[in-house]
Amino acid sequence: MTPENRTRSAVGGSEPTHRARARVEASDIPATGAWRPEHGAGRRQFADIGALHLEAGGRLPHVTLAYQTWGELNAARDNAILVCHALTGDSHVAGPAVPGHATAGWWSTIVGPGLAIDTDRWFVVAANVLGGCQGSTGPSSPAPDGSPWGSRFPSITIRDQVAAELELTDRLGIAQWAHIVGGSMGGQRVLEWAVTAPSRVRSIAVIASGAQSTADQIAWGHAQLAAIQLDPNFRGGDYYDAGPGQGPHAGLALARRIAHTTYRSAEELETRFGRLPQHAEEPMLGGRFAVQSYLDHHGTKLALRFDANSYATLTRSMLTHDVGRDRGGVEAALAEVTADTLVIAVDSDRLFLPRESERIAAAVPGAGPVRYLRSPYGHDGFLIEHEQVTRHLGGFLRQVARS
Question: Does the predicted model carry a pTM greater than 0.90?
Answer without folding.
Answer: yes
